[in-house]
Amino acid sequence: MKKIVVSITLLCLFFCGCAEASDDVSSITSTIQNESIELSCSEISEATDDGEVYEEIILVKCPYLESEDKDCTALNQIVFKKTEEYLDALKSDYIDVSDLSLDYEIMRSSDFVSIVYYGSVAPKDAVYPTDFSFSVNVAYSGDVMGLSDFVGLDADFAISFRESCANALTDEVQEYISRFSDDELLEMFAKCDTGYGASFSFVSDGKINVIFPVPNSIGDYVIVPLG
């Protein structure tokens, strides 16, 4: 059998007009840039008859922030680093990610940008693929942002989160989340936006959203818009 080394390439895309705060987003465009970042991956542990190694490349889209008014180098380094960290952890978990797909959506606020990734991976011999979502929030100043920068993580937030779940989620997901105490939820949210396996946050149209992981049988993750 072939021994495949799967590597993931981040395909940089231009995202114009990112840096200076503005309400006008009509000029935002994306064009392909030839530069790319290639991620290393663990080898699939199957010996080959001829000893050769076959490499499989996966192109993963990742936005490249650009502005005529400001150097976005630091912002792009943050976006790439956070994306690489998540995908490296994903590969460590699944090993074979040859069926990985990933797309993204950009939400722009007055002083920061949220990049939300949506993807799926089909584990070997699995009946259904696993869906996942994560985000990167970065201020135009270059600071990484997370849920604790958007809202206070206290008992009131736990109550607000449960109320938001009741308004937005299915009974199955609500039942699953109800198994966590307020203290357990707050402990999870304290680790929000820290990496693979955690919850994530982003802001869209002025509203804070939480990406909350759930079991594969009820959807892998849910997005909860906070009231």
Discrete helix count: 5
What is the overall pLDDT average?
77
Reported CATH architecture of the largest domain: 2-Layer Sandwich
> How many structurally independent domains?
2
- Content-based structural category: alpha+beta
Question: What gap, in angstroms, lies between the N and C termini?
Answer: 53 Å
Largest sheet: 4 strands, antiparallel
Shape: globular
SSE order? EEEHEEEEHHHHEEE
User: Can you identify the CATH class of the largest domain?
Assistant: Alpha Beta
Beta-strand percentage? 35-45%
Helix content percent band: 10-25%
* Rg on CA atoms, Å: 19 Å
> pLDDT under 50 segments (min length 5)?
1-8, 13-48
Give the total of beta strands: 10
Strand order of the largest sheet: 4-5-6-7
Secondary structure topology:
Elements: E1 4-16, E2 32-39, E3 54-66, H1 73-94, E4 101-108, E5 112-121, E6 130-139, E7 144-145, H2 147-150, H3 155-168, H4 171-177, H5 182-190, E8 200-204, E9 207-213, E10 221-225
Parallel strand pairs: 1-3
Antiparallel strand pairs: 1-2, 4-5, 5-6, 6-7, 8-9, 9-10
Task: Please provide a written account of the structure.
With 227 residues, this protein is α+β, with helices and mostly antiparallel strands. The protein has two domains: 145 residues, Heat Shock Protein 90 (2-Layer Sandwich), CATH 3.30.565; 81 residues, no CATH class. It contains five helices and ten strands, in the order E-E-E-H-E-E-E-E-H-H-H-H-E-E-E. The strands form three sheets. A four-stranded antiparallel β-sheet has the order 4-5-6-7. Strands 2-1-3 form a three-stranded mixed β-sheet. The longest helix has 22 residues. The N terminus is likely disordered.
